[in-house]
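Re: that chain you flagged

S.,

Sorry for the slow reply, it's been a week of failed gels. I finally had a moment to sit down with the sequence you sent. For the record, here it is as I used it:
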Amino acid sequence: MLVRDRMTPNPITITPDISVTEALRLMGDKKIRRLPVVERNGKLVGIVSDRDLFQASPSPATSLAIWEIHDLLAKLTVDKTMTTEVITVTEETPLEEAARIMVDRRIGGLPVMKGDALVGIITESDLFQALLELLGGRRKGVRLTVTTTGAKGTLADVAQTIYQAGGDIVGLGFSEVDGGTSDTWVNTFKVQGVDKDKLVEAIRPHVREIKDVRET
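Prediction finished late last night. Pasting the structure tokens below so you have them in one place:
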């Protein structure tokens, strides 16, 4: 899965000279939390989040009058609050690479570029949606979490066992334990077409431990 499969194409943008007040109003109207900032010629020059804008706003404890605060924000422009060193990805970036960048850099969204052109934006919400689908979160079935070894062919063996028990895997997730320092993996399956007890009985000899099983 690539970024282009999950990004929002043709994102809403603003120019650097727009006021903080206008930017906040636009975010509220469109129910978005960040806006790429582009010059009139379309060149990406920054990105601004609602957090950036709120931090630029006066504190509620300020001694300024309401009309003074409004006037101040109307004069404060986005170019004074935006992030100018923008981290971007391309349409062809693997989705997991975009997720890694967001986690490592502690950011919630990435502009998507095609050459010098801004063609989309991908956010943490897009990644949550992808995770939901990968794990079969919207499907009914038996949710089974097990631990297995990292030996080659283990996942294939478990999948074959589920198939032979009459199950159909509609969601799958797996991760290493202790950051990969052990040989243990945690695997979560969403399975349809088989009774919970029958699935547990079939799978038990093929895994180290059944950590959780439930019908959803």
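What I noticed first: The beta strands are 8-9, 34-38, 44-49, 89-90, 109-114, 117-123, 142-149, 168-176, 184-192, 209-215.

Talk soon,
D.
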